[in-house]
Amino acid sequence: MAFNASVFLQENEESNSQRMEKKQLQNNLVASEDPLQNLCLASQEVLQKAQQSGRSRCLKCGGSRMFYCYTCYVPIENVPVEQIPLVKLPLKIDIIKHPNETDGKSTAVHAKLLAPEFVNIYTYPCIPEYEEKDHEVALIFPGPQSVSIKEISFHLQKRMKSKDRGPKDDPDIPSLKRKKTEEQEGCDLNESKCIGTTLKKIIFIDSTWNQTNKISTDERLQGLLQVELKTRKTCFWRHQKGKPDTFLSTIEAIYYFLVDYHTNILKEKYIGQYDNLLFFYSFMYRMIKNAKCSAVKKGKLSDKVK
Ligand SMILES: [Zn+2]
């Protein structure tokens, strides 16, 4: 009896795990269909042509590249700059790059190419000083202290107040205002709109997830408000093995942050204003997916021939 029960349990467990596996497979299939197909994008004809003609020269450094130069942050000879969309952002972005990160693999360059006026890329350990600006800057990075996008206004406002009061006052003494805000779970539209504008710059770390710790624990970034994006799933083709699929590539993280910021903080309707940030990303994603598909098809064909 005991034996039978354990067999039954085992079998039950097996079918459960099979079911889980099946579900995971279905999820993967849905995700792999094309999560980027409904974007509002400029014509990618220029990229199609460049893809057909192959690598070309960077007009600045002369290097042979595809689409853009990842060291000079400019499109290459066969991709005329006037055919690349320009995206206007609601705030400035600093990207801190790990020196060991392979430049050609980074998607941070996409942001610099598509919103050059708003984006700066720094190579660690050469990074700007943020200490004086910590009431208007946020580091987009997951961690035990990180808050959600919706909570940014509240936390920056708290910092601003403690700055106004000066160092003698204890910023952690809960004021009436803070209690009110906490109870209301955010503030009324006008107030939050005005507070929302205090965020002027967001910082992203561009590196493989294993290398980011060194940068994120740098004391120059330690005091900053940390914000975490939790709910988005990556479709990055270089997705790092063993990491959850909510670990985004840099350009995905920037894009999803801005979309959420637009609706939750600016309280404006999102109608694709930042979609062109994925101009290169979506094209390269599709290019790689097609290459994989045709490799699989070829594999099957050669199996049949055998
Ligand atoms: Zn170059």
Q: Could you characterize what this model shows?
A:
With 306 residues, this protein is of the alpha/beta class. The chain contains ten helices and nine strands. The chain is globular, with a radius of gyration of 23 Å. Zinc ion (ZN) binds next to loops. This is tRNA-uridine aminocarboxypropyltransferase 1. It comes from Jaculus jaculus. Belongs to the TDD superfamily. DTWD1 family. Catalyzes the formation of 3-(3-amino-3-carboxypropyl)uridine (acp3U) at position 20 in the D-loop of several cytoplasmic tRNAs (acp3U(20)). Its main location: nucleus.
Summarize the structure.
With 306 residues, the chain is an alpha/beta fold.
- Quaternary structure of the protein: single chain
Overall structural class, as computed from helix and strand content, comes to alpha/beta
Q: Nearest-angstrom radius of gyration?
A: 23 Å
Strand order of the largest sheet: 6-5-8-7-9
Strand content: 5-15%
Low-confidence stretches: 1-12, 27-31, 168-196
Largest sheet descriptor: 5 strands, parallel
Bound small molecules, deduplicated: zinc ion
Q: Helix coverage percent of residues?
A: 40-55%
Order of helices and strands: HHEEEEEHEEHHHEHHEHH
Mean pLDDT: 79
User: How many individual helices?
Assistant: 10
Give the termini distance in whole angstroms: 51 Å
Number of strands: 9
What is the approximate shape? globular
